[in-house]
Amino acid sequence: METQYYQQISEYTDPIHHRSLIQTLPNDIEQLCGFVQNLLVHAYWLGKYDVEVEDSVKHSEMQTRYAKDILNLAASKSALPINKKRIPSERVVSICRDFSLILCAVLRTKGVAARTRCGFATYLTPELFEDHWICEYWDQGQSRWIRVDAQLDSTHLQELNIDFNPCDVPESRFLYAGDAWQLCRNEKASPAKFGILSLNGLPFIKGNLIRDLFSLNKIELLAWDTGWGILPHYMSPILNTDEMDLLDQLAMVSKESDVLKAKQALASQSGIGFPVDWSLTMAPSITDLYAQYS
């Protein structure tokens, strides 16, 4: 039942009129990652690809929420179909969440159970657990979820000296947000080691934990979506022991990828799911985030 749930396309991963083309793509996971990499360029790696983009354009493209809109934007940047080779300047400016989202959209369109996960990677910045997203899919033959980092193209592999298969990321190299929370709560790692740029600590992990719960519910948020419940801001402190206890419980849900409890948390836990009078259109943008924290 769990795999059937993740085979179904979500509102955020529905490619709409790109479905037919996606269904013609090969089933090989490495080739599917290549398809994604040909359409996206990471916002923080533009210089490595000799791409220059004005901040306003960069922020606008990074703010693209739905797979269909990312694919439409990619289609508008080249006269060639989206499955044909293109130069980096014809790619959509994105972040790790988007690489994961598009791979997830492709896999679900092809009938493969897949889901995005929010957490932390050990391989992006030395000695740090950096804010990151990956996609994982169910391998029927091996009866396991396989973690895939679709962002890691040949440029990333070389620059980061990656020593593992990006199409089968070891569990020790990418931690679900719940794993990160438990490591810090059990004093096995410093919260200051978890984050990105100058932002770190338990408030940062808290945000990723909430976003990972939404991913388990097939609500693939933007990496900076905040503004509701116990996540009013991007860096929202833990207010009291009750909230800490709740986050401890949610960390176990993330760690164990417990789909049923993730659904229950969004449906019944006050402060986790969206309020009835709130929508994602009210969440701050990446431009707002930079203005507040840069």
Automatic annotation (TrEMBL):
InterPro entries: Papain-like_cys_pep_sf, Transglutaminase-like. Residues 94-150 form the Transglutaminase-like domain. It comes from the Bacteria. This is Transglutaminase domain-containing protein. It comes from Alginatibacterium sediminis. The lineage of its organism: Bacteria, Pseudomonadati, Pseudomonadota, Gammaproteobacteria, Alteromonadales.
